[in-house]
Write a structure and sequence with these properties.
30% of the residues lie in helices and 23% in strands. It is built from 3 helices and 4 strands. It has a 4-stranded parallel sheet, with helices on both faces. It is globular and about 35 Å long.
Length: 94
């Protein structure tokens, strides 16, 4: 079974870097990032990850970006992960 994860993004380079590390630590996935016209180095950072499919859409917004990613996804199961940082487990230890 193949998993596809869609990440819509706009100017979230630092947070996206952490989200990528977290997602790719989960195993084999197809990761599609749909960029809405970032100017903060996001596209350059994504260029360092040849295993990520990068699409660009500056026209319509978040939900259309997700739909564009879904149209390109090949997975049996498709999920959405926004470009937020994921907490490290040590930060939540009691």
């Amino acid at each position: 079974m193949r998993f596809s994860i869609i990440t819509p993004v706009l100017n979230r380079c630092d947070l996206l870097r952490e989200a990528i590390a977290s997602l790719h630590s989960q195993g084999q996935i197809e990761h599609i990032v749909v960029d809405g016209g970032s100017v903060d180095g996001t596209l350059e950072m994504l260029g360092e990850h040849p295993n990520i499919i990068v699409l660009q859409d500056r026209r319509r917004g978040l939900y259309d970006a997700i739909n564009i990613g879904v149209e390109h996804a090949l997975g049996d199961i498709i999920g959405v992960s926004h470009s937020i940082a994921t907490p490290r487990s040590s930060e939540h230890a009691s």
